[in-house]
Amino acid sequence: MRVGFLVEQLLAPVPGGTGRYSAELATALARRGAPGDGVVGWCAARRGVDAASLPGVLGPLRLGLPRRALATAWSRGVGPAPTGVDVIHAPTLLLPPAGGTVGWATGSLVDTLRGSGRSGISDRSESGRSAADHRDESGRDGGRSAGGPVRPPFAEWAAHSVAPALGDALDRRRPRPKLVVTIHDAVPWTHPETLTPHGARWHRLMGERAARHADAVIVPTLAVAAEVARHLPIPPERLHAIGEGVAEAVVRVPPDADARAARLGLPPPGGYLLTLATLEPRKGLNTALAALRRPDDPGLPLVHVGAVGWGGLDVRTEAAWHGLDGSRVRTLGRISDEDLAVVLSRAGVLLAPSRSEGFGLPVVEAMAHGVPVVISDAPALVEVAGDAALVAGVGDAAALSAAVARIVGDPVLRGRLSAAGRTRAQAFTWNAAAEATWALYRRVGGSPAVSVAADGRA
């Protein structure tokens, strides 16, 4: 079985948690497939695609529209899609039209194997020069090429008219690929105010498309399955909860950990609180900062790791608004997996005060290091953490501060949470997620199962 896996999120300005999911799952799928299975990465038209090159995954092959145009076309149910595969997996709500159309790939599978990837021949057919050949690194039109100026109106007309017809003709002898979509959370429906208005509308639109056209929808937790089912008409037999995992690179502490800690300016081991999330409103950073001002706060500094998302949040500005001086809060931004392993391994407590989550991967990553965790009572976080974390209500800074004080002041509790967390984290692996996902592919694609785990939550 051959799977076309969309890796576009890896090339986004802020890949975030869905980028991590895309990279880890695709790599694990390539590692855990049966003989004859293969995973091919696909992305929008652009020149720089190294960030989407994954071990064991062929490609990425490029579709004939840049990201913004591709998202617009797909939101209207038209445009290019991966071809020559049995299953297409969209790991975000950027999903192709039902059934797919001609691939418009800028490099064929053969060219990818040879390392050239520039022939303009798709996996299935010769389709000529791609629009991607004329794009600069940002994905904008690059002006002129050897073939003359790029004309976006022509590309749009081709996406709407030529590609579907040509794709139907080319794929007549091959069944249309099945479509699997991952919906990571129900935030666009339950907490739309935590997204941009455009983002909330777009995600709801694409969620509705997934409900209509996907052969299977993956969610990371049973909590998300219940929330999604309340807002989208997805039959239970098409909704599958498959958990996530912890990357080995995030668990393995590098031998130069002390030098990395010094370079990052980390406090002594166990001497700081940690928040790990893309900086955006729903992650609850303001609750964590407010907790530092409570009378029972134990006085540990807060270290924040994560790229800036949207909403204009700035850690230092928010800290100052809460009356905290610079010594209490440190932000590291987006860091490497090796640095993240060091930061996690030396944290005293991880705080996960999100208003809503789909899985809460940082919770499992911290638990894998034996770091005690305090979560909000967002349903997915409670499900993932089980009894291995303390819980504070969403937005309840007093409860969050009290939980931290309990952990810091009680070595017995600290040890219990550390041990329980390590045990809990072992239930979540990318290999298990990949095996459950292969089982799902075979179910929707009509192929017999071959030594794979039973479908269900990993």
Helical fraction: 25-40%
Classify the fold: give the CATH topology of the largest domain. Answer: Rossmann fold
The assigned structural class equals: alpha/beta
Gyration radius over CA: 23 Å
* The CATH class of the largest domain: Alpha Beta
Residue windows where pLDDT falls under 50 for at least 5 positions: 100-171, 448-458
Shape: globular
Q: Could you report the average pLDDT, rounded to the nearest whole number?
A: 83
Strand order of the largest sheet: 3-2-1-4-7-8-9
How many distinct domains? 2
CATH architectural designation of the largest domain: 3-Layer(aba) Sandwich
Beta percentage is: 5-15%
**Count of alpha/pi helices:** 17
Q: Note the main sheet.
A: 7 strands, parallel
Extended strand count: 15
The termini sit apart by: 22 Å
Key descriptive features of the protein:
458 residues; alpha/beta; Rossmann fold; seven-stranded parallel beta sheet; six-stranded parallel beta sheet; 15 strands; disordered C terminus
Care to describe what's here?
By secondary structure, the chain is α/β, with parallel strands linked by helices. The chain folds into 2 domains: 2-245 and 430-445, Rossmann fold (3-Layer(aba) Sandwich), CATH 3.40.50; 248-425, Rossmann fold, CATH 3.40.50.2000. The chain is 39% helix and 13% strand. It has 17 helices and 15 strands. It has helices spanning 16-32, 67-75, 109-114, 152-170, 187-190, 197-213, 222-231, 248-251, 257-264, 285-291, 315-321, 337-346, 361-368, 379-385, 397-409, 411-425, 430-445, and strands at 2-6, 38-43, 58-62, 87-90, 144-145, 148-149, 178-182, 216-219, 239-241, 273-276, 302-305, 329-333, 349-352, 373-376, 390-392. The strands form 3 sheets. Strands 3-2-1-4-7-8-9 form a 7-stranded parallel sheet, with helices on both faces. Strands 12-11-10-13-14-15 form a 6-stranded parallel sheet, with helices on both faces. Strand 11 (302-305), helix 11 (315-321) and strand 12 (329-333) form a beta-alpha-beta unit. Helix 1 (16-32) packs across helix 17 (430-445) and helix 13 (361-368) packs across helix 16 (411-425). The longest helix has 19 residues, at 152-170. The protein is globular, with a radius of gyration of 23 Å. Residues 100-171 and 448-458 have low confidence and may be disordered.
